[in-house]
Input
Amino acid sequence: MAWSGVAVTLGFAGLAVLAWCAVKVALGVRRLGRELERAKRRLAPQQSALRDELQALQDARAPFEPGDGVRSG
Output
């Protein structure tokens, strides 16, 4: 009978350790999400400027005509 009480106690202790680890992981995930959101807000102006510059470069590029290439043969 004593062994079953020890087994149950160890089982509950194991579950308590797993619950503690789950709480720590959940808090870490929440903290990481906040950090990613903060980085995203900080990088948004630079991303917008790069997107505008890329669009300007694409608009300024001369269109490629398939018939203007080098012919072989």
